[in-house]
């Protein structure tokens, strides 16, 4: 057993280490639950929104490194959640402030991690870690909290099989269908409710972020959320005006149930909009292929160009897989590209009312430059209704 040298400044029960499958070891201190966790280590460059990031179901089985150095300043509140619980498998940060201060704060970040039994590590060089992830690609890793057994941490890091081939959409999805009518948050009012919807959207929950549902409700939609494995027939029985394909964790390729249902619904000509995993599912249902990226896109400052208007938008991103543009069939028109690496960010079917976007138009956290895509979906449903 190899132990790191004692650090006189950290009490033994607070010691924590991060191991990467490439052999790198980082020492820090525990800010969450004791124990250990494994997953794919990724980095996110967003400067705000740690609570939304932690609760985003798309981070299931990922250990999220936040590159912004001070995380926890505004504590935790009851409203900024994208799901009922934390989905990230672990949190890696540089500096946890001693004081959390915000008018809505009810808990500190550390109390939140502990209450939800999530392992977190602070006090390590997140810049050095991010350089490793950028140069070598996202790494499988392990965080050990409460002990500093390097061999154990390395063995745990290497035991994670990696996200390629992992179907997690059906794991995080709701098991029961439900109706959503909560609208967007407004200062002084909080969340509202949609009481007179003009459209009925059926949303497939592969790990849906709540702000997507809120933005649809804000635009006049009643949303029925279905489990990831629901069939096209179940969706059609609800007589939807439109179909929404949600974001979600893991590899899109093994989600054969979602690909089959999407293919049928698009073929029937129902207006369909997909975000992130939903975009990848739409691509697979249209005959294209997806691939694993080197370190993916995770942040809130990614420039994306709309090829129709030439407009550049600053977008929120969180994906480790991408659609291989070279495999898009002729009935798919590229609508958006990433200006960071030229990768595909959006396409539309030319033969059916269906389009999708790789980034996160709902932001949360992030800029709202791409929010008009929700208006485009509503306009598509309106046109189809009147056709
Ligand atoms: N946010 C998402 O929907 C992520 C999609 C997919 N799991 C990926 O990593 O590419």
Automatic annotation (TrEMBL):
Reaction(s) catalysed (UniProt annotation): hydrogencarbonate + L-glutamine + 2 ATP + H2O = carbamoyl phosphate + L-glutamate + 2 ADP + phosphate + 2 H(+); L-glutamine + H2O = L-glutamate + NH4(+)
Alphabetical list of Gene3D superfamilies matching this protein: 3.40.50.880, Carbamoyl-phosphate synthase small subunit, N-terminal domain
Signal peptide: none
Classification via CDD domains: GATase1_CPSase
Active site per UniProt: 276, 360, 362
Enzyme class label: ligase
Domain of life assignment: Bacteria
Binding positions (L-glutamine): 58, 248, 250, 277, 280, 318, 320-321
Region (CPSase): 1-199
EC number: 6.3.5.5
Keywords assigned by UniProt, alphabetized: Amino-acid biosynthesis, Arginine biosynthesis, ATP-binding, Glutamine amidotransferase, Ligase, Nucleotide-binding, Pyrimidine biosynthesis
Residue intervals of the Carbamoyl-phosphate synthase small subunit N-terminal domain: 14-144
One GO process term, biological-process aspect: 'de novo' UMP biosynthetic process
SUPFAM superfamilies per record: Carbamoyl phosphate synthetase, small subunit N-terminal domain (SSF52021), Class I glutamine amidotransferase-like (SSF52317)
GO molecular-function terms, A-Z: ATP binding; carbamoyl-phosphate synthase (glutamine-hydrolyzing) activity; glutaminase activity
Record's function text: Small subunit of the glutamine-dependent carbamoyl phosphate synthetase (CPSase). CPSase catalyzes the formation of carbamoyl phosphate from the ammonia moiety of glutamine, carbonate, and phosphate donated by ATP, constituting the first step of 2 biosynthetic pathways, one leading to arginine and/or urea and the other to pyrimidine nucleotides. The small subunit (glutamine amidotransferase) binds and cleaves glutamine to supply the large subunit with the substrate ammonia.
Complex formation: Composed of two chains; the small (or glutamine) chain promotes the hydrolysis of glutamine to ammonia, which is used by the large (or ammonia) chain to synthesize carbamoyl phosphate. Tetramer of heterodimers (alpha,beta)4.
Name the record gives this protein: Carbamoyl phosphate synthase small chain
The species this protein was found in: Noviherbaspirillum saxi
Gene name of this polypeptide: carA
């Amino acid at each position: 057993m190899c132990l790191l040298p004692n650090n006189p400044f950290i009490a033994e029960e607070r010691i924590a280490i991060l191991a990467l499958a490439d052999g790198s070891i980082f020492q820090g201190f525990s800010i969450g639950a004791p124990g250990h966790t494994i997953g794919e280590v990724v980095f996110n460059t967003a400067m705000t929104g740690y609570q939304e990031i932690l609760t985003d179901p798309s981070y299931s089985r990922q250990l999220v490194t936040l590159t912004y150095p001070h995380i926890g300043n505004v504590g935790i509140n009851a409203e900024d959640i994208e799901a009922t619980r934390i989905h990230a498998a672990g949190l890696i940060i540089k500096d946890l402030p001693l004081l959390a201060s915000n008018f809505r704060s009810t808990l500190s970040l550390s109390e939140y991690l502990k209450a939800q039994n999530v392992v977190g590590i602070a006090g390590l060089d997140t810049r050095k870690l991010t350089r490793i992830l950028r140069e070598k690609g996202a790494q499988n890793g392990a965080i050990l909290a409460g002990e500093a057994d390097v061999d154990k941490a390395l063995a745990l890091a290497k035991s994670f099989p990696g996200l390629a081939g992992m179907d997690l959409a059906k794991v995080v999805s709701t098991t029961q269908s439900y109706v959503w009518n909560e609208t967007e948050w407004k200062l002084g009012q909080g969340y509202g409710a949609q009481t007179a919807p003009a459209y009925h959207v059926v949303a497939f929950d592969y790990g849906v972020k709540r702000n997507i549902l809120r933005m649809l409700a804000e635009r006049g939609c009643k949303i029925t959320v279905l489990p990831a494995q629901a069939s096209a027939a179940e969706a059609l029985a609800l007589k939807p005006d439109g179909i929404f394909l949600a974001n979600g964790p893991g590899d899109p390729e093994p989600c054969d149930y979602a690909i089959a249902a999407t293919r049928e619904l698009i073929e029937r000509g129902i207006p369909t909009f997909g975000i992130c995993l939903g975009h990848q599912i739409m691509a697979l249902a249209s005959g294209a292929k997806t691939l694993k990226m080197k370190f993916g896109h995770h942040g809130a400052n990614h420039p994306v160009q709309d090829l129709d208007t030439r407009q550049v938008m600053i977008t929120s991103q969180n994906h480790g897989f991408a659609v291989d543009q070279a495999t898009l069939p002729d009935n798919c028109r590229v609508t958006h590209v990433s200006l960071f690496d030229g990768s595909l960010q959006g396409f539309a079917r030319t033969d059916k009312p269906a389009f999708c976007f790789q980034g996160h138009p709902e932001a949360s956290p992030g800029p709202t430059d791409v929010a008009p895509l929700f208006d485009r979906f509503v306009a598509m449903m309106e046109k189809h209704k009147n056709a």
